[in-house]
Structures are given as C-alpha cells and as structure tokens.
Amino acid sequence: MPGGVAVRLIVVRARPGPALAELADQPDDLLVVGYGGWSRLGCAVHGSVTRYCMAHARCPVLAVPLPFSCPV
Questions:
Q1: Is residue 57 part of a domain?
Q2: Distances in Å between the alpha carbon of 38 and those of 28, 50, 57?
Q3: pLDDT tens over the chain, length 72 residues
Q4: Which domain covers residue 49, as residue numbers?
C-alpha cells in the first residue's frame, strides 16, 4: 500500500451490500467494489451489491469492472 493509505481488513457475516455501506460510513472513506464478468445470475447478484453500495454508501464508491469475463 502507498504511504498514507489506511486499509481495514474485516470479516462480517451479513448481506454484502448493507454491510459494506455501513462499514464505509465516513466522508473520507472510499468504497471500492467490483462488478461484471459473471453469468446472468452472477451479474444479478453482484450487480445488485454494487448498485446498493452506490445508492446507500455515505462515501464515494468506485465500481471497477473486471478486465475479462470469468467463466463460471
């Protein structure tokens, strides 16, 4: 990690969208989530997490696409 970047590693058992949005609750946080590249079901599941975070997080959200399609 570059100097001055704080990273927290946390394990939480909860629905991913609400858990991520709740944990990244400071204006100076940055929530980075991936999206795309899965099957229709995977896109629906993972895409909904990304959409949830973008709609509910109290900090900036960066949605990063996968560089290629992952076979499931």
A1: yes
A2: 31, 13, 24
A3: 678 887 878 899 999 999 999 998 888 889 998 876 556 666 555 558 888 999 999 999 999 887 765 555
A4: 16-65
